[in-house]
Amino acid sequence: MKNPVQTLTKSVTVNDNPFMKPIEWLSLAVLALVLLVVLPSLLDAFRLNLVGKYLTYAFVALGLVICWGYAGILSLGQGCFFGLGGYCMAMYLKLEASSVENTKIQSTPGIPDFMDWNQITALPWFWKPFQSLPLTLILVVAVPVLFAFVISAALFKRRVGGTYFAIITQAIAAILTILIVGQQGYTGGINGITDLRTLHGWDIRTDGAHTILYFVNGGLLIGCILIAQFVKKSKLGRILVAMRDKEDRVRFSGYSVAGFKVFAFCLAAAFAAIGGAMFTLQVGFMSPSFVGIVPSIEMVIYAAVGGRMSLFGAVWGTLLVNWAKTSFSESFPDLWLFGLGALFIAVVLAFPNGLAGIWREHVEPRLTRRVKGLRAPPPAIVPHGAPAE
Amino acid sequence: MFGDYSLGDLGAIFAMQGFAGLILFSVYVLMALGLAIIFGQMGVINMAHGEFMILGAYMTYLCSAFFQTYLPALFPAYFFLAMILAFCASGALGMLVEWALIRHLYKRPLDTLLATWGLSLILQQAYRSIFGAREVGVELPSWLIGSVQVTDSIEIPINGLFVMAVTTLITVGVALLIYRSRFGQQVRAVMANRPMAGAVGIDTEKIDRYTFGLGCGIAGVAGSAFTMIGSTGPTSGQLYIVDTFLIVVFGGAASLLGTIASAFSISQTQSTLEFFLSGSMAKVLTLLAVVGILMLRPQGLFTLKVRR
Amino acid sequence: MNAAILPGSVIGANPNAPEYLLAVDALTVSFDGFKAVNDVSFYVDPNEIRVIIGPNGAGKTTVLDLICGRTRASAGSIKYKGQELTKLTESAIVQAGVGRKFQTPSIYDDLTVFENLEISFPRGRSVFGALTFKRDAQVRERIHEIAETIFLKDQLLERAEFLSHGQKQWLEIGMLLIQDPELLMLDEPVAGMSVGERIKTAELLNQIIVGRSVLVIEHDMKFVEDIAHRVTVLHQGKVLSEGSMERVKNDPKVIEVYLGH
Questions:
Q1: In chain C, which residues have their Cβ closer than 8 Å to the Cβ of B304?
Q2: Residue ranges of domains in chain B
């Protein structure tokens, strides 16, 4: 029999469910410091803008941590939501750039140039809401989330999951790309929506604007991390893990499993959409090359490299892979695809928990040995075999 | 949209498009067969399937170049050797990949998907480094060039007919192998109940390796046949991977007959729509219809109701 | 409520009569032509322990699957407290008060024992509810109480993966208990357990049946004799015999099935 005092301490520890553990606060502080202080003071405007672009992908990776890492739903169509968010923003910016004054040489002034080239003479109905900034800001998130809801509700209600879901989301990414490319007059086609200038009269092309947008982006990312942390810490987060493990048990504990999956998928879509909109603002265009199969699956690798169960890992993973991509493809363009391919294989075979796993298994124990007072969190969370279908 | 055409015209259109659809159907069946074995029987998602196909195509290309240079007398028959080579090359690579990669991941289907995607990137870059980024085409032997005139308005290209014949042969061969041979019996036994199959003395690891190799080998043959009607580039395989997966899923993953039926309906829909709409819209509508049907009937066309 | 019903009154009684907790009536399901459960009827009273026995493939697990909504019936009805279950979703059936334990221990390996129990706590079952769920004193107390009952109070912080087979079975029973179901369905609760664990489980079951009905599938006849109020024998998807253990044991049809082949 254990003595009662010991049992009591145990139960106190059990009851302790803080929003973030000390180590997590530390991770957040380090991330915020690097993103909002170190990088802006070290990098020139061009490089900082590049980092800002990478960080927009981190929104997608963050969503994938919840959706894939926690709920076990692998989506190969996150590019859809990134793209839809980005396109919604781009449509507003394009309309502002296509004022009657700016487009007076067109046969129909006041509509985007690519519409004019494609003999379209009036603004299509689905472009009209994007004349208003508040409406646009709502639609940036609402359109992708609604789209995600329709897809996921239909599939999860019918118990489609695992590899089937992955394949269907991939097909949807392919369909959306073909549609955008094919409907040139309405979407700008393969070139996408380009030549974006101002946001409500504010020129977004200047270095100053880029810097401000970088900070907005960084702030939003940290906000999304906190939202994801809240979800992860809530009972819902534990239900997602439970569902990944034993879906039937959750169902027969009185939960509607489909509803929780839809939530996880829609949350991931919302994050991706915010990332897409910030991408458009910082980079100044949006094109179908961010919607399709290839970017969608590449975004999965960002989350995988960072550690599929780690929110902070997702950000670091995204930065690392993109930094590697940029430096490799500058100097050895041929090698990059080999490297990326090897990365996919390595992260699956050797490091299923990514950077976060390496950190937890190798770095943290050493740190804890030196710094007393920090309790070591439980070991790696993704076991072998999980997340199985 | 039918208003502008007379009834006779429409008949000819449907016949011609139907035939174009049949060629597309053959290509789809060839691609989907290998995948149906790997995904349907083993439950493995092989995203590099297209690259195994392209390997077969490149083997055929090498073969045609070799015969043209060194054995011009035998050139008309090179294609048959090329198909065998394509099967062996893709099959051998498939077995190697199974041994090095896939066998560690049988319990993690989603991770297999990512790993094989990585593999496909590596293979694509390898093809680009070896064969160049440009698409290559093979020289057709003279007997495959030209077309058969059926009626005044309908003519059928011979290479298309040849691809259809090859498809039929391979499909029948695969069906016999899976449903009639001892090997096929063992494959089905392993997939139905792995521990039990192991207990009765079947070497399940060997069966896995051969099954995967077989699926990849068939992809190689598909690639080989593919050179008869189109050119090959490093990323050609990726273009078809989504269609191929949809076909297998739509057919009901474990059913060979379902795969064929689904390849048929998808190819016919697409080629008929293509005549009235732009190519991209035809594709969008076809794929949307497939995804829509899968949302309502996720188990695909052909499945049995079984106790879960 | 009239709890004391004579065994004889079961036959020919009105299945809609409210005194039955569970009324299974002419239940049939076929898988691709094969009738796994064929015209099965039985009625469970409040506070009754009913054991379903039968040879392999008799359709026992399928009957539980049908009651909890995992499998959809082809024909027939299942009434729980007068409410038709065949049309409800799985989660609605659970919320109505039916709990089910699976044959192999079905727990969440990646979560701790505490979290396993917490998820089964019947509050915050909607998406929004789960987001705003608070781990308050009531939840903690209840979890500790259940952990005590299922002999796992010292393992609360352990990951469920590391429990022994028997402990996993208990944990799953605990997860059902915390739901406080009125009808508890257990599929082979002592299968694969050591003798010691088996005795403890029988003790546990005798403790938890108070105030609820239990439907058990079990092969261990000694165990069945210990706990069963009444026994239903299934064979090839049909009810072969029903009544007290004593009566069933002496039924020539049952002897034929168990010894005859």
A1: 32
A2: 25-242
Instruction: Report yes or no: A167 and A77 within 8 Å, Cβ to Cβ.
Output: no
Q: Confirm or reject contact between C103 and chain A (CB < 8 A).
A: no
Where residue A133 falls among pLDDT bands split at 50, 70, 90? very high
User: How far, in Å, are A166, A197, A209, A332, B138 from residue A205 at the CA level?
Assistant: 37, 6, 7, 30, 49
In C, minimum Cα distance to A229 occurs at C131
The answer to whether the bond into A377 is cis (omega within 30° of 0) is no
Does A170 contact B245 at a Cβ distance shorter than 8 Å?
yes
Helix axes of C113-120 and A235-245: crossing angle, nearest 10 degrees: 100
Per-residue pLDDT reduced to its tens digit, B77-111: 888 889 999 999 999 999 999 999 999 988 888 89
Output the pTM of the full model: 0.89
| Contacts for B173 with CB less than 8 Å, ≥ 6 apart | none
Q: What is the pLDDT at residue A22?
A: 84
Residue A372 has a pLDDT of 56
CA B131 to CA B125: how far, in whole Å? Answer: 10
Helix (H/G/I), strand (E/B), else coil: A343: helix
Task: Say how far apart CA C24 and CA C229 lie, in whole Å.
Answer: 18
Q: Does B206 touch chain A (CB under 8 A)?
A: no
**How many of the other CB atoms lie within 10 Å of CB of C5?**
16
Measure CA of the first residue to CA of the last residue in chain C; give whole Å: 44
Written as tens digits, the pLDDT of chain C (261 aa) is 444 444 444 444 454 555 789 999 999 998 877 888 989 999 999 888 899 998 888 888 899 999 999 888 989 999 998 889 998 999 999 999 999 988 888 899 999 999 999 999 988 899 999 998 988 889 999 999 999 999 999 999 999 999 998 899 899 999 999 998 999 999 988 888 888 888 888 888 888 888 889 999 988 888 888 888 899 999 988 998 898 888 888 888 888 887 654
User: Does residue A296 register a pLDDT over 90?
Assistant: yes
Whether chain A has a CB inside 8 Å of the CB on C81: the answer is no
* 3-state secondary structure at position A292: coil
CA distance A236 to A171: 29
Q: How many residues does chain A have?
A: 389
Interface test with C, best of B255, B299, B307, B308 (most C CBs within 10 A): B307
Q: Which of B303, B305, B306, B308 to mutate to test the interface with C (most CBs of C within 10 A)?
A: B305
Q: Decide which of A85 and C15 is more confident.
A: A85
Return all residues near C148 (Cβ < 8 A) that are at least 6 apart: none
- Give the pairing type, strands C183-187 and A198-199: unpaired
Residue that has been written with the tokens 């990951």 in this structure = C159
Asked if residue A259 lies in contact with residue C127, where contact means CB atoms within 8 angstroms, the answer is yes
**B109:A162 CB<8 A:** yes
In chain B, which residues have their Cβ closer than 8 Å to the Cβ of C36? 307
- ipTM of model: 0.86
Task: Find chains touching chain A: ≥3 CB pairs under 8 Å.
Answer: B, C
Buried b (16+ CB within 10 A) or exposed e, A175-206: bbbbbbbbbbbbbbbeebbbbbbebeeeebee
Rounded to whole angstroms, how far apart are CA atoms A272 and A297?
A: 13
Cα A88 from Cα A191, distance rounded (Å): 16
